[in-house]
Amino acid sequence: MKRKIFVLVLILIPFVLLFLYFFLLNSRPGTPLPLAEHSKGELRVATLNINWLGFNKKADATARRLASSAKENAIDVLLLQEYKEHWNFNKREFAALFRKEYPYFSIEDECVCLSKFPIKSHKRVKYSDMSGSFSDIKLALDKDSDLRIFAVHLVTTGINNFSGDDVEIVAQGVWSTYFGNSEIRRNQAVSLSEKIGYVRTPLLVMGDFNSVPGSFPYRKMLSASLKDSFLSKGKGNGSTYRYLYDLFRIDYIFYNDDLECISSHIVDDEISDHKMVVSSFVIKNI
Questions:
Q1: 131 lies in a domain?
Q2: For residue 8, how many other CB atoms are within 10 A of its CB?
């Protein structure tokens, strides 16, 4: 009898873990409400990976839809990852699509920052292991208040890079790349958390982490005294990656104690293979 109970417990453990992931970390109780009107004192930010901006083979039209979506959702600061100049326009043409709404525009490496507030600085910072870099952005919200943003794109899993008829070779490539990149993401998250520890102003850490809730990079952000905006104020399914059965939340907006999150939404305008995360904040003690 005890043996049967033990076996039953072993069988149930994976289902319990799946429940915790999908219902406690990947989704929140309730039905998402439409984005509210932009209120006074509210800071509304968004992040989106646009690597597949042209996945419908109409990159220019999709980019215009992105500009319209940013305006419709009253976004103050929009961070884009994986900007590439292999679309049908250059940086100047891309910036022109947003100029009316976003007078401040900066591109460093793959990161685009579109802002209604002056961009005081935008620089790329190397991770400690030199595996890549993130954007360190400083915005002037007013003459007495700055906002710091770390715009992040941790290394991908790499499993989409393998194809072919030789199943064994493909499997070996997927296996080694997946676990090799997992170690790189761990190192990047450790380096990022160390740099977070030095910030003494309102801080957002946002972007494509290529990591699900509960993973090491996710837990490292929480251990750095950051909060997950979707867990704070989101509702419904939090998936941010449209493929793989729409199950995975890998894009986040984290914030520190100098900010208070008042709402968080997942906006799916079919602009990329990722969905946009939109979160609103107020700065405390102002």
A1: yes
A2: 10
